[in-house]
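Field log, afternoon session.

UNIT: design team B
ACTIVITY: writing a sequence onto a fixed backbone
BACKBONE:
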């Protein structure tokens, strides 16, 4: 497994453009199964999760090329509603294919994505939403078969604004007969992006970005070319990295409105931020201030995906901060690793109490999931001495060559890939 080696203590500095959003690109690729023909999707980052999604689409009979950051996907010859178990296990987001495959083939065969490193991650809301549209669901072991001769519009009231369930139901409803209304829908920007993509192909959806989404079913869609929004979590990662290293960075191709809760938090910590159109400038010269309480919640509140990253900044703050995680129960795995770097954090149930220290020290640490891994990289950049981050494949799920991105901002970071005789060689 690859490792990242970081020589810390150097402020980040420079200008960089943000990659397209993984969490928007994945449902957009899945939604392409609703159309017959060739779609072109721009600003699709080169990531492990995207590769897995494209491999699933190829297994289903599509032709897919990912050249630069553009995906050209021809769904004409798609013939199978069976998502292979091996690929399904590689990425939970393959569950997004349920709605589109059900709409296209009248049936879909998937497998329980199962538990994952950050918590249980149930799919009951996806299933009850599809049932409301007329699907019957059979579960046998960890296999799920969903069938519907015909999908019909319905009123779906989500008991929790699940991002994935909102997207799955939206996709299934696009070709259903009649009107579907999703209430208590998730409001994340990625859902608006999915709406815009589907509407560009002829769907009739309004309301994404609010808690009520209405979909008027249409007969068919027409292929289009579409550009994915910038990744707000990568944006946030670099904003925190700049703040934690007391650096100065300019981020281009961003949408400041999508990270407004983070901007608010960082300003409270004393970080200087200016935002203008699609540019965010972050400047940090002083020790961050502690923040009394941050609670992760559905958008537009503070996102769970930035919890571990902001925690790194708070480990260096002047005073005690509290971080409460309300979305995923297993999302404090980075705490033990940060403690090995000198952080002073106590966890009680779903709250972390962070007493700021004057510095972190380099150590060998392990990425346990995507955002925990990114947080350890940021901690390594801010720490004194050398940090080795192991299990980098988790980070590769969401960041397009994180070491190249950070090197361009002046970081001292290299990736080491083990060779068969156990000697590690640097490769960038
Ligand atoms: C998406 C994001 C992920 C982010 C999360 C929350 C993608 C690919 N991933 O994940 O990065 O951290 O939103 O912002 O977009 N739940 C149920 N039943 C369900 C579905 C969800 O109980 O059927 C619960 C989950 O266990 C979790 C909470 O709802 O506690 C949030 O999950 P959800 O919003 O669905 O997240 P994902 O779509 O999986």
């Amino acid at each position: 497994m690859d490792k990242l080696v970081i020589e810390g203590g150097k402020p980040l500095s420079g200008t960089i453009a943000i990659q397209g959003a993984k969490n928007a690109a994945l449902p957009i690729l899945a939604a392409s199964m609703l159309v017959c023909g060739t779609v072109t999707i721009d600003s699709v980052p080169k990531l492990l999760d995207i590769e897995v999604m494209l491999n699933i689409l190829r297994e289903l009979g599509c032709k897919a090329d990912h050249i630069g950051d553009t995906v050209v996907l021809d769904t004409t010859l798609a013939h199978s509603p069976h998502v292979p178990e091996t690929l399904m296990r590689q990425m939970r987001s393959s569950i997004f294919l349920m709605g589109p495959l059900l709409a296209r083939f009248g049936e879909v065969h998937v497998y329980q994505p199962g538990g994952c490193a950050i918590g249980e991650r149930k799919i009951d809301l996806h299933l009850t939403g599809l049932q409301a549209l007329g699907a019957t669901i059979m579960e046998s072991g960890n296999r799920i078969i969903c069938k519907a001769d015909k999908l019909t519009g319905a009123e779906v009231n989500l008991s929790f604004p699940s991002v994935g369930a909102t997207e799955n139901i939206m996709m299934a409803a696009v070709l259903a007969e009649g009107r579907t209304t999703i209430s208590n829908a998730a409001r994340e920007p990625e859902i608006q992006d999915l709406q815009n993509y589907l509407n560009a192909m002829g769907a009739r959806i309004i309301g994404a970005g609010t808690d009520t989404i209405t979909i008027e079913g249409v007969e068919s869609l027409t292929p289009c070319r579409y550009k994915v929004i910038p990744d707000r979590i990568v944006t946030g990662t670099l904003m925190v990295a700049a703040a934690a290293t007391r650096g100065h960075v300019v981020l281009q191709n961003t949408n400041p409105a999508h990270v407004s809760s983070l901007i608010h938090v960082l300003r409270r910590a004393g970080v200087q931020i200016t935002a203008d159109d699609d540019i965010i400038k972050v400047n940090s010269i002083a020790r961050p201030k502690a923040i009394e309480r941050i609670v992760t919640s559905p958008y537009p509140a503070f996102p769970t995906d930035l919890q571990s990253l902001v925690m790194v900044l708070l480990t260096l703050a002047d005073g005690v901060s509290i971080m409460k995680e309300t979305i995923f129960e297993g999302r404090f795995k980075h705490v033990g690793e940060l403690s090995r770097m000198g952080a002073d954090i106590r966890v009680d149930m779903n709250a972390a109490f962070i007493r700021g220290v004057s510095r972190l020290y380099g150590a060998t640490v392990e990425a346990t999931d995507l955002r925990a891994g990114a947080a350890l990289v940021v901690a390594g950049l801010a720490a004194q001495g050398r940090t080795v981050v192991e299990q980098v494949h988790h980070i590769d799920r969401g960041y397009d060559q994180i070491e190249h991105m950070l090197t361009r901002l002046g970081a001292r970071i290299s990736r080491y890939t083990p060779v068969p005789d156990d000697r590690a060689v640097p490769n960038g």
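LOG NOTE: Residues 232-244 form the longest helix (13 residues).
NEXT ACTIVITY: expression trials, pending approval
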